[in-house]
Design a protein that fits this description.
Blueprint lengths: L2 E4 L2 E4 L7 E4 L2 E8 L6 E7 L4 E2 L2 E2 L4 E4 L4 E4 L2 E4 L3 E4 L4 E2 L2 E3 L1
Antiparallel strand pairs: 1-2, 3-4, 4-5, 6-13, 7-12, 8-11, 9-10, 9-13
Length: 97
């Protein structure tokens, strides 16, 4: 993986990073975790019909849907949708179409 860091700035070549399996049909590339706030950035790839297990956010998170549709507690997030989730957000289940 090619990563460039200077002070608190980073640049990551995501194509060089391996996908890490999170579950059946769900893979992730963790780009950054902030030691100061716990905020994290990642690329998540889900196959149609797959889902995340129920979980609670221990830090804030946001996401942007590049392709497909993510169904979660606020409704359906389709292509081009951006969402923010605060610390403490609880997800019963999250599925991908």
């Amino acid at each position: 993986m090619t990563t460039t860091a200077q002070d608190n700035e980073i640049m990551v070549q995501t194509a060089d990073m391996p996908w890490v399996k999170m579950g059946d049909g769900v893979d992730i590339k963790i780009l950054r975790v902030s030691e100061e706030t716990g905020f994290w950035s990642a690329i998540i790839r889900m196959q149609p019909g797959c889902q995340f297990a129920s979980h609670k956010h221990l830090a804030p998170a946001d996401f942007y849907v590049l392709k497909g549709c993510l169904k979660y507690r606020l409704g359906e997030a389709g292509e081009g949708c951006y969402a923010y989730e605060p610390t403490g957000a609880i997800h019963e289940s999250t599925t991908c179409d």
